[in-house]
Design a protein that fits this description.
- The structure is a homodimer of 133-residue chains.
- Chain A has 133 residues and is mostly helical.
- Chain A is 70% helix and 11% strand.
- Chain A has seven helices and three strands, in the order αααβααββαα.
- In chain A, strands 1-3-2 form a three-stranded antiparallel beta sheet.
- In chain A, strand 2 and strand 3 (89-94) form a beta hairpin.
- In chain A, helix 3 (33-44) crosses helix 6.
- The model of chain A has no long low-confidence stretch (mean pLDDT 88).
- Chain A binds a DNA duplex (20 and 20 nucleotides) through helix 4 and helix 5.
Chain lengths: 133, 133
DNA sequence: CAGAATCCCGTTGGATACTG
DNA sequence: CAGTATCCAACGGGATTCTG
């Protein structure tokens, strides 16, 4: 099974070194805690206001919220719509690009969920092996 | 299309708040630059020595290499085999768990590769919109 | 309400030197 | 070769305050 998987994986990426660097940069940019959380929230609720995101994310500072949203906007993952009213109202929603990323990350999410116990078991085993030495 | 995708995504995760936290922690642990790179390298070449990984990763310090490999070992993603010879020889290889993660991450990798130009275009557009204001 | 600005601290992570 | 240990700079990111 492992060999099948390996072969399947190896045949997929064309592996262009120049492209790789950019891809790595994009992944580094996109694969952080808050970006993932925001994508999840915006997948569950299509359109969100700033304060809704702040509440849904629980634990995020508004500095990081603003910062992360700006970066996502910059990368074309979300759209930001400002309504010129008082008090201000700003709506965020995923673009198709962002939705595509959500779908791609879904695999990782499911993997983490499916293998959570296996990881915890591995950690316990590792810890046990350590203190015996 | 966007709605199809959204519906597909929403129906997938059971969304247990307690489990979610652990999953987030796992993703935070696992979704960093070096872990992803090492997984890629170990997918392409099944078994690697420490120095091979150091060369393949290009840019990683041996501190981060050691640290990342230990964390991956702890989480059961790689096995570490020490051969009691001089000079020392240590081999690393992905476990089935690690291979599964590789597969899951593959989707993100492909997405980044496929949408690289779209992201660069979005960045250019954002920059243009900025300096006009 | 949605942010911008400032201050500040902890952690990350690189460079270097040493060891079995 | 495959690390460990130490030092130090940079950055991430939280708390707080202020504004349109």
């Amino acid at each position: 099974m492992a060999d099948d998987l390996r072969h399947q994986l190896m045949t997929l990426p064309p592996s262009d070194p120049a492209v790789d660097r950019l891809v790595e940069e994009i992944i580094g940019r996109v694969a952080d805690k808050w970006t993932m959380l925001l994508i999840e929230v915006l997948t569950e609720q299509e359109v969100c206001r700033f304060s809704e995101l702040a509440r849904a994310c629980e634990g995020i500072s508004q500095k990081m919220l603003t910062q992360t949203l700006r970066a996502m906007e910059r990368d074309g993952l979300v759209t930001r719509t400002v309504y010129p009213v008082v008090p201000p109202k700003v709506e965020y929603r995923l673009t198709d690009l962002g939705l595509g990323l959500a779908k791609a990350f879904c695999g990782v999410w499911l993997w983490a969920e499916a293998n959570r116990e296996a990881i915890e078991a591995a950690r316990a085993a590792y810890a046990a092996a350590q203190e015996e030495a």
